[in-house]
Write a structure and sequence with these properties.
Elements lengths: L12 H12 L2 H4 L5 E4 L4 E5 L9 H14 L1 E3 L5 E7 L2 H8 L3 E11 L2 H6 L7 E4 L10 H4 L5 E3 L7 H27 L6
Parallel strand pairs: 5-6, 5-7
Antiparallel strand pairs: 1-2, 2-4, 3-4
Bound molecules: S-adenosylmethionine.
S-adenosylmethionine binds next to strand 5 and helix 7.
Length: 192
């Protein structure tokens, strides 16, 4: 691996496995409020469907990924598509999801908090959060130029799954606040 270009940003599917386990087991994802995509260093896009429950065993995850790269899709026993693989750049991915805003997460970003960063999504249709699934290094220039603001949510470097967990939790709290707010309006506690 070390001989390959950008070796620090390849060869760690375990990081993606961990990140997906985190994202796909949250109430936000299970409640169909978040879509999840993986863009790989060699321009493949993996679209995760709402029905995917990622295997906790890395061995089984690896098997699933091998099937995906061979067949370009993974289906459930009932025929529902769980994951699809397509060729495409990061630009293609952002275009296909119609992201209203693209927010990068990096230690090199402007210092903020997970709460404030998640809050940006409140007024944006299809807000995309971009987290690096690699152990070291920063986003490529070609990726950075497509990011809107880039924020750091801690004064230390975090693992990708921790960043995802914090952002998702803040988004869940925002949605809950919206529900409570509507409930209060209906009960006449606050003016419409
Ligand atoms: C293990 S880090 C990669 C190392 C990279 N040098 C960095 O610190 O951003 C994996 C990913 O987690 C996210 N990340 C790590 N620490 C962060 C922080 N303090 N604020 C925001 N995102 C962070 C970034 O998206 C990063 O690409």
């Amino acid at each position: 691996m070390k001989k390959l270009e950008d070796s620090a940003k390849r060869g760690r599917p375990d990081i993606v496995h961990f990140a997906l386990m985190e994202a796909l087991s949250t109430p936000l994802f299970l409640g169909n409020k978040m879509r999840v995509y993986v863009h790989t260093i060699n321009d493949r896009i993996i679209a995760i469907s709402d029905n995917l429950r990622i295997p906790k065993s890395y061995f089984r995850f690896e098997g699933l990924m091998m099937n995906l790269f061979r067949d370009r899709s993974v289906k459930s026993d009932e025929g529902t598509v769980l994951m699809e693989l397509a060729d495409g750049t990061f630009t293609d991915l952002l275009g296909s999801i119609g992201a209203g805003k693209v927010i990068g997460l990096s230690t090199a970003g402007v210092r903020s908090t997970a709460e404030k960063v998640a809050g940006i999504s409140r007024d944006v249709e299809n807000c995309a959060f971009v987290v690096g699934g690699f152990p070291r290094g920063h986003f490529a220039q070609s990726t950075t130029r497509l990011l809107g603001p880039v924020y750091s949510i801690s004064n230390v470097g975090l693992e990708a799954h921790v960043v995802i967990a914090r952002l998702v939790y803040e988004c869940e709290k925002l949605l809950q606040e919206g529900v409570d707010h509507e409930g209060d309006k209906e009960r006449g506690k606050i003016g419409a």
